[in-house]
């Protein structure tokens, strides 16, 4: 492969993949916390609507959603998304629904006694959430969030079917240009693997830091078995 | 939705049902492949020999951490270069089965790991032969965790079948695209397909949750 | 007598009592934990609730802390109605007067010892950080943990954590302090330190204390009144000398015979 292919297609493709991952992850995180916390709300209607969101977007195929936002929504609302943002929206909304389940589970795993201590000190429900429950729940969320982040990274490859120039699309172009697929697709797979590896490493650091913040030693935890 | 056209929905129905049929067929075969190949990986991961464990771990981690779509293209474009010719449907089914086998392997492994060590020790104390230990003691306990988790991955596989549109397999999404290309009606076919996925996936996941509650205690 | 079983017919003015339960019933499913319970506590008194486990003592504290609500009956604190609830705002208003120390300490693991104590005064009472810090350090000195302000709760022993929890409750300057089996989760050698702190508070402040405990010597030391519970009712009450020295009720004698 020539340097030109790298410079003009693959490297910008990697950059696009990283951008897509970042933006979608930010949106998914916002959705995950919003919907996940809504699922613990004291009003049943809020819980119900958040539950509907989760079920709908977990039931949806991300690729179909992406096509739908790209081809159908412009007809409904009269203007089209920039392709990149249709993709980010589809990925963020779907993976956000999975993330919401993580947030809900982690909040539920904080012992009820912490909530009671918060009531006893007369904190408002939102203060209890912000000052007590979330800081303790977030470290629990990091490992499942990492899994979702890897799924999201893999999901960004779908955008190549919409013609967005991510690294998968670059591979497609290189294949057309060189009439040779084994090399470029192997390289592409390795690129994704390396990104996934680095993300996982990063999340391990985040996990260790956040757990240290609530007095849990991850290494000691691992050495002590599955507790 | 002012421009919703029920006749377009009706026109799409023949293609839609063809797509449903092929999607379910791919799902069934892909699931079987992922279940059985995953079992092979799991035994590799649980192997006593590090020379088996290590390569299996590398291979499954690699497949699990890279996109199904790229793997699909890899199989579709690269295998023919080595003289292996599959139809697009077969390639797609194999890609899904292979990809998800790395997930089912983790399910099997976790299920077996979750059986308390004391059960192995008790089996040893009773001098049960190795295969009796597996089939009479360990697997019946592990299976309670394994079945619901496998079910969840079947639902995931279902939602990934549209990726096969990328190699022109006539599953649901590709049927919708063809319909749109032929009629210039984009709204109805894609919406019908989108709703169809929710209508299949939601009851399935409800069912799995009930199953999980029954089996895992 | 400051704590007594009152008959609802001769209800005195609720304002004279700091805490007042009128015909309170609490059920968990088919299990009636509090059965038509009436009792009251006058300001500044130290009242100990004793009785077999499951007799509803802890439930009383949890009702007062609004961690649960009764099926029937009314509860007043400081003349204000707590239950039947008049909405979240009223609950928060009444709750201001009440502090609670839990069996399992329930410190916030994500905050330092100092933050555990200052967070509520700052966020709920609106104190400045400096004021709250100063108040917290005084309280930490009082419970003998002045040096551990910057530690995380997990770095402390159970006894130390419980003393921090006491300081945390006092930092809100409550009129009533609810103590829910505060030494039950502690290793035996750590119990004395916690009880000494509580004796200090009982002696030097005018805080009303409502205390569920199995430490009968402690109960005898600090109580103005002891209420003996059985099956969701107060079966006997009076000053500690009487309850521990010459109990009237057969169930009380049985219970004390078993624990003393």
TrEMBL record, chain A:
Protein name as it appears in the record: Polar amino acid transport system permease protein
Native source organism of the sequence: Streptomyces candidus
GO cellular component: ATP-binding cassette (ABC) transporter complex
Membrane-topology annotation of the record: Multi-pass membrane protein
GO biological process: amino acid transport
Highest taxon listed in the record's lineage: Bacteria
Residue ranges that the Swiss-Prot or TrEMBL entry lists as coiled coil: none
Domain called ABC transmembrane type-1: residue spans: 14-200
InterPro entries registered for this protein in UniProt: AA_ABC_transptr_permease_3TM, ArtM/GltK/GlnP/TcyL/YhdX-like, Ectoine_EhuC, MetI-like, MetI-like_sf
Keyword Transport: yes
TM region(s), chain numbering: 20-38, 50-71, 77-98, 157-176, 182-200
GO MF term list: transmembrane transporter activity
Pfam families: BPD_transp_1
The keyword Cell membrane is assigned to this record: yes
TrEMBL record, chain B:
The organism's place on the tree of life at top rank: Bacteria
One of the record's GO molecular function terms: transmembrane transporter activity
GO biological process, one term: amino acid transport
Transmembrane segments: 22-47, 68-88, 190-211
Domain ABC transmembrane type-1: 20-208
Localisation: Cell membrane
One Pfam assignment: BPD_transp_1
Membrane topology: Multi-pass membrane protein
Keywords: Amino-acid transport, Cell membrane, Membrane, Transmembrane, Transmembrane helix, Transport
A cellular-component GO term for this protein: ATP-binding cassette (ABC) transporter complex
PANTHER family for the chain: L-CYSTINE TRANSPORT SYSTEM PERMEASE PROTEIN TCYL, MEMBRANE COMPONENT OF AMINO ACID ABC TRANSPORTER
Family of the protein in this entry: Belongs to the binding-protein-dependent transport system permease family.
The name this protein goes by in its record: Polar amino acid transport system permease protein
From TrEMBL, chain C:
Pfam family, one: ABC_tran
Principal location: membrane
Subcellular location: Cell membrane
Keywords of this entry: Amino-acid transport, ATP-binding, Cell membrane, Membrane, Nucleotide-binding, Transport
Transport among keywords: yes
InterPro entries xrefs: AAA+_ATPase, ABC_ATPase_HisP-typ, ABC_transporter-like_ATP-bd, ABC_transporter-like_CS, Ectoine_EhuA, MetN_ABC_transporter-like, P-loop_NTPase
Residues covered by the ABC transporter domain: 19-256
Protein topology in the membrane: Peripheral membrane protein
Protein name (database record): Polar amino acid transport system ATP-binding protein
Organism per entry: Streptomyces candidus
Organism phylogeny: Bacteria, Bacillati, Actinomycetota, Actinomycetes, Kitasatosporales
């Amino acid at each position: 492969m020539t340097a030109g292919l790298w410079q003009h297609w693959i490297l910008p493709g990697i950059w696009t993949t990283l951008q897509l991952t970042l933006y979608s992850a930010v949106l998914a995180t916002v959705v995950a916390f919003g919907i996940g916390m809504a699922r613990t709300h004291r009003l049943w209607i809020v819980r119900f609507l958040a539950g509907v969101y989760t079920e709908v977007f977990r039931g949806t195929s991300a690729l179909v959603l992406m096509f739908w936002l790209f081809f159908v929504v412009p007809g409904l609302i009269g203007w089209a998304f920039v392709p990149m943002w249709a993709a980010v929206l589809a990925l963020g909304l779907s993976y956000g629904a999975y993330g919401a389940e993580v947030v809900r589970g982690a909040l539920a795993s904080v012992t009820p006694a912490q909530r009671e201590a918060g009531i006893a000190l007369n904190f408002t429900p939102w203060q209890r959430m912000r000052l007590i429950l979330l800081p303790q729940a977030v470290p629990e969320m990091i490992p499942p969030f990492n899994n979702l982040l890897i799924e999201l990274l893999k999901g960004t490859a779908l955008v190549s079917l919409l013609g967005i120039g991510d690294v998968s699309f670059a591979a497609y172009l290189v294949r057309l240009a060189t009439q040779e697929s084994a090399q470029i697709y192997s390289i592409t797979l390795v690129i994704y693997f390396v990104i996934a590896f680095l993300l996982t490493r990063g999340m391990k650091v985040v996990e260790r830091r956040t757990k240290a913040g609530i007095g849990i030693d991850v290494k000691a935890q691992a050495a002590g078995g599955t507790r | 939705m002012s421009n919703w056209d029920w006749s377009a929905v009706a026109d799409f129905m023949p293609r839609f049902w063809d797509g449903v049929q092929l999607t379910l067929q791919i799902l069934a075969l892909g699931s079987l492949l992922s279940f059985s190949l995953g079992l092979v990986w799991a035994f590799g991961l649980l192997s006593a020999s590090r020379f088996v464990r290590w390569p299996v771990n590398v291979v499954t981690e690699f497949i699990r951490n890279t996109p199904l779509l790229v793997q699909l293209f890899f199989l579709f474009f690269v295998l023919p270069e080595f003289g292996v010719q599959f139809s697009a449907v077969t390639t797609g089914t194999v890609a899904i089965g292979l990809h998800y086998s790395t997930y089912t392997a983790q399910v099997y492994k976790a299920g077996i790991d979750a059986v308390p060590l004391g059960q192995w020790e008790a089996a040893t104390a009773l001098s049960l032969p190795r295969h009796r230990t597996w089939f009479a003691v360990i697997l019946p306990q592990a299976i309670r965790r394994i079945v619901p988790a496998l079910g969840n991955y079947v639902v995931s596989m279902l939602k990934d079948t549209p990726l096969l549109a990328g190699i022109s397999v006539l599953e649901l999404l590709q049927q919708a695209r063809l319909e749109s290309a032929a009629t210039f009606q984009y709204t109805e076919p894609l919406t019908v397909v989108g709703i169809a996925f929710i209508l299949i996936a939601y009851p399935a996941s409800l069912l799995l949750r009930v199953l999980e509650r029954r089996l895992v205690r | 007598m400051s704590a007594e079983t009152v008959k609802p017919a001769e209800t005195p003015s609720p304002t004279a009592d700091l805490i007042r339960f009128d015909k309170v019933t609490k059920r968990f499913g088919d299990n009636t934990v509090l059965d038509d319970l009436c009792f009251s506590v006058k300001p500044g008194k130290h009242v100990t609730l004793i009785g077999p486990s499951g007799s509803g003592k802890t439930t009383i504290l949890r009702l007062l802390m609004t961690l649960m609500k009764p099926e029937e009956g009314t509860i007043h604190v400081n003349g204000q109605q707590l239950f039947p609830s008049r909405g979240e705002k009223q609950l928060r208003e009444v709750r201001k007067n009440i502090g609670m120390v839990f069996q399992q300490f329930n410190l916030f693991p994500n905050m330092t010892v100092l933050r555990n104590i200052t967070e509520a005064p700052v966020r709920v009472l609106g104190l400045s950080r400096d004021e709250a810090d100063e108040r917290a350090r005084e309280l930490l000195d009082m419970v003998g943990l002045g040096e551990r302000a910057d530690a995380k709760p997990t770095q402390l022993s159970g006894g130390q954590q419980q003393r921090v929890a006491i300081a945390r409750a006092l930092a809100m300057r409550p009129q009533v302090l609810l103590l829910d089996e505060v030494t039950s989760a502690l290793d035996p050698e750590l119990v004395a330190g916690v009880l000494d702190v509580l004796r200090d508070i009982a002696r030097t402040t005018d805080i009303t204390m409502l205390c569920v405990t199995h430490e009968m010597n402690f109960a005898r030391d600090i109580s103005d009144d002891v209420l003996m519970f059985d099956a969701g009712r107060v079966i006997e009450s009076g000053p500690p000398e009487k309850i521990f020295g010459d109990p009237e009720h057969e169930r009380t004698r049985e219970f004390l015979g078993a624990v003393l």
